[in-house]
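ok so i was messing around last nite and threw this chain in just to see what happens. nothing serious, just curious
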Amino acid sequence: MIDSFTHSIAFAPLLPRWVLIALAVVLVAALAIGLLARMRGTLLRALAGSVILLWLSGPQSLTETHRDLPETALVVVDQTPSMQLRDRASIARAAALALGESAPEGLTLRTVTVRGERTGGTRLFDALSQAAADIPPDQLAGAVFITDGQTRDAPADVPERLALHDEAGKSVTLPLHVLLTGRGEEKDRRLRVLQAPPYTIVGKSAVIRVQVDDLGPGTQAGATATVSLTTDGNPTLEVPVRTGEPQDISLPITHPGETLGGLSVSPLADEVSAENNRDVLSITGVRDRLRVLLVSGAPNQGERVWRRLLKADPSVDLVHFTILRPPEKDDGTPLSDLALIAFPVDELFRNKIDQFDLIILDGFENRHILPPSYLHNIAQFVRKGGGLFLIAGPEFSGPYSLQDTSVGDILPAHVPSSPPDLAPTEAGPGIIVRRFRPQLTEDGRRHPVTAELPGAPALHPAPDSLSAAHDVPGEWGPWYRALRSDDAHGQVLMHGPDDSPLLVLDHVDNGRVALLLSDQIWLWSRGEFGGGPQAELLRRISHWLMKEPDLEEERLEAHIADGMLTVTRHTVSGAPPTSVTVTAPDGTKSPLSLHPSGSGLLSGRMAATHPGIWSVDDGDHRAFAAPVRPDPEEFSDLRLTADIVGPVAKKTGGQVIWLGNDIAHPAVPAITLGATSGNALNFPQRHAHVLTGTSTTPLLPAWLVLLLAAGLLAAGWYREGRG
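result:
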């Protein structure tokens, strides 16, 4: 660095300041008295006193030595995802290297790389502000952006970090130079989803609002384009649109759960990339107001649980009736006192039964309440796709059991009949009365209805002691009554005493049936010896009966994260396929092997970086997945353009330079410091420095003061003597 010198006058008083002031006052007073008295030689004597007073104030010549400090210019290199198009990133790196090699003496280039680690698009000015925070303002020379011109935080005026003030308080604007990684302005067509509902009722269409924009030189609104829509492997729907105008497209939702819709628009001639010409939507299909019919037999402890569970779900319309007494019983009570409304048997079980999604029969004993034709309607309701949940107690083995009707034909278990005079608290051929803890079967540990239920007991627990009066940690609370079946089919998920079936699920044609062979699940809600997950179990059973996709026992799932496709096959059968076929968005098919990854689970992974909808097929089931862009804003405009950062650069006095497409030798201009030269990257010289030394020299030596004072006094006396 070069040393520089500055000279100035300083004072080092020999006496305290107040003494010097007092002497000055006395000198002025003596001068005034002498002038008023017209005394000769007064001015000469006052001049001698002034010389002495000046000497006492210690005048010195001060010489300071300064060392100039280097200036720093920031080079912000854009390496965000949009820079990966073509050779932009490579050109940017080569230009940054060339700038570093051509920096003049006295100027340091600090390189900052922006990689787009957060969402919200590229933010070059945020990076500039953060990088300049630890540079002294008087050492900052300016900044250079090496970019494609796309940034989401361009200010309307000069950036705050480049608008400074010097030591004199004068405004200083530092230059921002922009180097663009290409030859000139580019064109791009983009597809934007303006509005899409996250949920839509199954059987209806989701209305999606899209807009196609053409950007860049030579483009204008109103051009024609074609938007294509594909969903879950269905035929492609093509819709003509005009650019620059919103367009509504209907997407049919045909099944519950997630529906992936792939949108794409026809390309624009000579556009820079088709990366933002497509998008993927995820819309969840939901059922419209699930209708549940709950019919309870004699009032029991489980009724309140059912009402609380079903009423808590806002998507469920519950119709609940409790049979207080059989119709043949007559105790003289007026009909108006038996119920607020009559039991609408004909309305529910003949005219409107198909309007329900689920029928729950809780402890229902058919004492001629429902005629055979209505019971036949219940069975047909299941076969056509409905769900039936039957909670069975002692009445199920009695003379009026539903298993001896048309409903029994669709039930997955049969219970031997008990004597008519058998009390509910007594054991019989079909009734077990003793303390037991419900256990999960092997199928139950794999089935999504019962898998991972909170507090599930061990697979082979220790025998439950009848005398135990305390809870067993990690195990469910006991029940005290169950039914013993002599025939069962379907899937047994829980068993009771003597390994007898307790919870049985079955598919019947297009519908489903669940049978719980005990009426004491309500004990779990009471916390009996620790209780159990009653509400969760009943919720899962009900939603399985209503065909909730996440509770299907045989299903295929796929999702994409971090460029990897993960496929999971859920099974209860134990013999699922060990490989699937993966179809990429471009139609390429690849096999993927699945390996056991848990109870009833097989999974496999493969790379999936291509945007669009990926399809997975195991022969019986299909699943779809699509990668999610981590930062959609980054790809909303892929043009190489000076329209965004160019105006800011010009306000600062900076240059906008096109680097060209030569990766090895980009057209990087020269850098000048303190001079202005054509297309060069000019930076001002800030003259920042640091003090390295000082030296002083007295301006009035003592001998000179003595001679001057003595001479002036002698001249004063001489002048006075001549008068």
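not much to say yet. The two ends are 66 Å apart (CA to CA).
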